[in-house]
Amino acid sequence: MAAAAGVPGALGTLRAGRARLVAAYCAGIGPGWRLPGSWTGLPVGPAIWARGWTPAAGGAAWRRGYSSEAKTEDELRVRYLEEENRGIVVLGINRAYAKNSLSKNLVKMLSKAVDALKSDKKVRTIIVRSEVPGIFCAGADLKERVKMHSSEVGPFVSKLRAVINEIANLPVPTIAAIDGLALGGGLELALACDIRVAASSAKMGLVETKLAIIPGGGGTQRLPRAIGMSLAKELIFSARVLDGQEAKAVGLISHVLEQNQEGDAAYRKALDLAREFLPQIKLVKLLQLGVFFGIDNITFCLLAFKEKRTPRYKGE
Asked: One of 52, 59, 87, 185 is an active-site residue; which one?
């Protein structure tokens, strides 16, 4: 930061401002966390390494993980599971070098994937997870944000909010598997899901107030619905970060698990829940959202009830 401040003129001011922004964000993440390639980290390019953090054996300590930059087309992996898991779709975020932060490209890919899923009648449950150990999503990509022209920021935030709303409005159950860090927009993404499960070592919080901004992806509405208005205000005002046990205690997540050696305990629990949902239909989700049903659908359901049999679902 001192070096940045020493650069004369507007350039020095800009670099110093960026350094303060990154430092403030890292302070919200916790000790030892750094954004790759930032002014608070080593001067090594993100394509060479990424500072991920994964739980060591037992989940108590933390160790560094390294990975190379993913191709942009691999930053979101959409997997349609087969056999006994048929009907389950997994959206896997895969931006290790940027802690799965939400970039313009990732938001675009999420929007495209969600648009395809919402009209796919074979999909019964969707799991949102990370393909990167120790990280769920660290929020908006601040490195990309500071490079945006002022005219680009508003549309990007609007697009991000729209994608999160689209996930919340999906006609099938959605589960967020939080096996690591979920901050800012990352937690807002999880809040858009119907159910959240997390490892006890995960970290969650809406930390935007540390940057003198407010959550922009619907967190100010969805967090109060999950844990109550008063506590939600407290967490947002303080930018407090909770671990999995604390999040479970306040009702932010439904299940908390000790992390396993593979670092995917939350995902495995999400998969178990998804399998439980498979025999059901998206009727419950649609009723919850207050969506109007045509008379044919209602007649179909009432007929099964009248005949005292299990409905034969066709995914319609």
From this structure: 185
